[in-house]
Amino acid sequence: MRIKEINGLSTEDRKSKLTDLRIELARIRTMVNAGGAVENPTRIRELRRTIAQILTIQNEKKLGIRQPIEEKEEKKAAKPVKAPKAKKEIKEAVSK
After folding, report:
1. What's the pTM?
2. CA distance 27 to 37
3. Which of 12, 13, 7, 11 lies closest to 70 in space, CA to CA?
4. How far is residue 3 from each of residues 6, 71, 94, measured CA to CA in Å?
5. How sure is the predictor about 37, in pLDDT bands with cuts at 50, 70 and 90?
6. Given pLDDT bands bounded at 50, 70 and 90, which one contains residue 21?
7. CA-to-CA distance for 54 and 12, rounded, in angstroms?
8. Exposed / middle / buried, residue 54 (Cβ in 10 Å: 0-12, 13-18, 19+)
9. How do the domains of the chain map onto residue ranges?
10. CB of 14 within 8 A of CB of 54?
11. 3-95 in CATH: which number?
């Protein structure tokens, strides 16, 4: 799961996704501890990483560090875009 996807989730969706991931991680760890073969061993690392990302984003939003996506898009739309100067105008300005 990518950071943009996590940011797009609501608080309740993030909490439910977090519990689902923790349950899946516990199930895989139980299989490993029982001596069974895991189909995809790298899945443990992916689950731990995703859980950490979700917790980090939740903490940042609680502390006010991370801005919601809507605010970032509004700021980008509010900035005026400067038109680049033509090469001819730049050469004329330099030669003067």
Report:
1. 0.67
2. 13
3. 7
4. 5, 17, 45
5. confident
6. very high
7. 12
8. buried
9. 3-95
10. yes
11. 1.10.287.310
